[in-house]
Specification:
Jelly Rolls, single chain, 3% helix
Length: 430
């Protein structure tokens, strides 16, 4: 998880007010949507077809494999769709399928060329899915498809898609989104409490539902594979690097203790520090409780400890406790986030609910408000399928799946928490 800078935005209202910077609005313009950053294998994933970060759709040999390309139109109207493709091994026929309209086009030759078009009509602004299916081929593969070419009336106010190679990986993961809680005290906060529920069907592989985020780390649950799920607690080193081996000894995160079945070590690539996780097959539809402590040790360091309430045991389990050097702070920047860490899963949607947030500064105090923020992928207009809000249970975040709803970054939500404060005997925590 990249370090997030939770920038506040003014609430600007509905989708009609959305300002899309850097998107051309030239009438008659043809947009070349690169498959490298905007496509997924959505059927037949067990085959050889893949989305290459440089060459788009490659190794496409089975007619069971479907590649889907996504872009967002900013207005209703007609569109013309073509492919830019080649076939080094002979001739092939490919079906283009979008919004109920289909066309079978020919691909031949080892030079990239445009195919025949498919015409569709967009009824309302929003994301469009275009499926590519192999029909026939004379060689081993159907085609190497590099771009989807889009033009027409519905493109006259611009399209949103990933057009920057630096973002292709992040765009295929999808935008991350966050809830930044309004902490109802000026005192020193030593504990965060939060409850997380992942609705049935929203627990897609690659999801990270982060419950208790703070200025120096995060704590939540993941779906790592079809057979493995984890509780994850991480603390960043004060030394800024993506390589944990480069951290000086005096700035390394030190493990103070860890719970049963907890693995501990270092992490890198998106900041570096100390990481702990416990394999635990948590379930969608069940509410889980998270408790985090952060206090200075009086010697220029801060100790962070995470506990997870295991329903099957009816007890708090410690995940780990870390000492962060060169740090003298209580808990700050209480937040939650939702992200997908698997780029091949970015076309799938996910949702999470957060409820009953409390902070402790000598007394438990209920959180009553939060604001919504997004990551650089969204802010760079590479992809904007991420929203937040409130429901009857509290706050929620949703991302992925290329839905068309929009909630403006910076939107503020209020939720009156009428629950009783947590009953936790801190002295009896493991």
């Amino acid at each position: 998880m990249k370090r997030k800078h939770f920038i506040q935005y003014l609430f600007l209202g509905a989708l009609s007010c959305l300002s899309i910077s850097g998107i051309a609005q030239t009438a008659g313009k043809t947009y070349a949507v690169p498959l490298a950053g905007n496509a997924f294998i959505t059927a037949g994933q067990a085959g050889d077809a893949e989305i290459s970060g440089r060459n788009g759709l490659v190794k496409w040999s089975s007619n069971q494999e479907v590649a889907s390309v996504y872009f967002r139109a900013q207005k209703a109207g007609k569109l013309t769709l073509k492919l830019k493709a080649k076939n080094d091994a002979g001739k092939s026929k490919i079906e283009i399928d979008a919004l109920g309209k289909k066309a079978v086009v020919d691909v031949e030759g080892n030079e990239l060329a445009e195919t025949a078009p498919l015409s569709i009509e967009i009824k309302a602004p929003g994301y469009v899915r275009v499926d590519l299916k192999g029909v026939s081929k004379s060689g081993s593969n159907f085609a190497n498809v590099t771009e989807l070419l889009v033009s027409g009336e519905a493109a006259s106010e611009g399209l949103i898609y990933s057009d920057n190679p630096d973002y292709y990986y992040w765009s295929r993961r999808g935008p991350s989104c966050h809830l930044n809680y309004t902490v109802p005290t000026e005192g020193n906060v030593s504990y965060y409490y939060n409850e997380v529920t992942v609705p049935q069907g929203e627990d897609k592989v690659g999801s990270y539902f982060m419950a208790n985020g703070f200025g120096e780390g995060y704590f939540g649950i993941q779906v790592n594979s079809e057979t493995e799920r984890r509780i994850l607690f991480s603390v960043w080193s004060p030394f800024h690097t993506d390589d944990p081996k480069s951290i000086p000894d005096e700035q390394k995160i030190h493990l103070l203790k860890k719970g049963k079945d907890v693995h501990s070590g270092e992490f890198g690539n998106e900041g570096s520090g100390g990481q702990s996780y416990r394999k635990y097959f948590w379930k969608a539809g069940i509410t889980y409780k998270f408790l985090l402590k952060g206090v200075p040790d009086g010697r220029g360091n801060t100790d962070y400890t995470a506990w997870f309430f295991v329903p099957e045991e009816n007890a708090w389990n410690v995940i780990a406790s870390f000492k962060r050097p060169q740090t003298n702070t209580y808990l700050k920047r209480f937040h939650s986030f939702l992200e997908n860490f698997s780029p091949n899963q970015g076309y799938l949607g996910r949702k999470v609910e957060f409820g009953n947030q409390w902070v402790y500064d000598g007394q438990w105090k209920a959180v009553q408000a939060a604001s919504f923020s997004v990551d650089n992928t969204y802010r760079a207009n590479q992809r904007i399928d991420a929203i937040g809000g409130i429901n009857k249970n509290g706050y929620f975040l949703r991302n992925g799946g290329f839905f068309s709803d929009v909630v403006k970054p910076g939107s503020k939500f209020e939720f009156r928490n009428k629950n009783n404060a947590p009953e936790i005997d801190f002295d009896k925590l493991p």
